[in-house]
Design a protein that fits this description.
seven-stranded parallel β-sheet; 42% helix; Rossmann fold; alpha/beta
């Protein structure tokens, strides 16, 4: 099914951070299949280039916590394709629960990536999205809707959830749509250990939700998609 934005006949440009694996890579494949030109950003250059070769996308190494990298990413996309129609701020990772657990440097990297990095992606892509009357998507989590015991990760995703609504208000009257994607348990490399649940979500399930949001008519702004595995109790 063609899910390029409603009424569109020319190829559109879909930029994804955290694109080298998991939800980002699955979304990149589905976006390319739907006819988008895809700009792939991540720190894992080998995986990124392999995916770019597979789908015909543009690979750009980017540390989302670095403002210069974010600006360079956007400029590469504009130099190559002339526009950005969808920006998916998807980069992020988790950590052990318990405020007496994990390494404090891991905490720092997680907060910078999940919160600061997301904010930088919004800032860097904002002019291009306004120009194209495009679509911004942010990856939050079920953990961004309900606090998890001892989880700093959950706190970072609460911040992303708030950022989604804050960005929606900031883009109001520009034609830019904003969607918050909030997955439950997903079987991806995000987790250090195998997911122990009957029938967890797959990365492709989340990618389909992303593509559903961007395929709506211009006057329809799907603000939040909260998606759990049927077997997830909370």
């Amino acid at each position: 099914m063609n899910t390029v934005p409603y009424g569109t006949t020319m190829p559109r440009v879909f930029l994804i951070t955290g694109a080298s694996s998991g939800i980002g890579a699955a979304t990149a494949r589905q976006a390319a299949e739907a006819g988008y030109k895809v700009v792939l950003a991540a720190r894992s250059e080998d995986k990124l280039r392999a995916l770019a070769d597979e789908i015909g996308g543009l690979a750009v190494r980017c540390d989302v916590t670095e403002w210069d990298d974010q600006q360079a990413l956007v400029q590469r996309a504009l130099d190559e394709y002339g526009q950005i129609d969808v920006a998916f701020a998807n980069a992020g990772f988790g950590g052990a629960r318990g405020f007496d657990k994990d390494d404090v440097e891991h905490w720092k990297r997680m907060v910078l990536t999940n919160v600061y990095g997301c904010a930088l992606t919004i800032r860097a892509t904002m002019p291009a999205l306004k120009e194209s009357r495009g679509h911004l998507l942010l990856t939050s989590s079920v953990a961004g809707r309900r606090a998890l015991q001892g989880s700093l990760y959950s706190a970072t995703k609460h911040a992303v959830t708030a950022m989604g609504e804050a960005a929606r208000q900031d883009f109001n009257d520009t034609g830019v749509r904003v969607t918050l994607i909030e997955p439950g348990m997903v079987a991806t490399p995000f987790f250090d250990e195998p997911v122990r649940m009957e029938a967890p979500l797959q990365a492709d399930d989340i990618a389909r939700a992303v593509m559903f949001a961007v395929s709506q008519p211009p006057h329809v702004d799907v603000n939040e998609i909260l998606i759990r595995p049927t077997a997830q109790p909370t």
